[in-house]
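Quick one, tokens below:
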């Protein structure tokens, strides 16, 4: 055999501190995004289930409470027109 092939793994330099921080930061960011997505999905389904159960057990008197007058949004006072002579 005239040529010897080198089949060993190439030399990979050790990652620097900054590369390690970047790698773990990306993993933490991905984990945070997954948690946020799950937080949006899971409580909304639990909220719908818990809202229907207590509503069925309430009596009619408790659900229909007398309400006071509905507050009107502030209206600007109308400008008084000048009296015609």
């Amino acid at each position: 055999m005239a040529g010897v092939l080198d089949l060993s793994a190439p030399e990979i330099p050790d990652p620097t501190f900054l590369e390690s921080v970047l790698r773990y930061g990306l993993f933490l960011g991905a984990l945070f995004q997954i948690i946020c997505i799950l937080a949006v999905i899971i409580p909304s389904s639990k909220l719908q289930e818990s809202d229907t159960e207590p509503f069925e057990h309430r009596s009619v008197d408790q659900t229909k409470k007398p309400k006071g007058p509905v507050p009107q949004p502030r209206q600007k006072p109308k400008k008084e027109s000048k009296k015609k002579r």
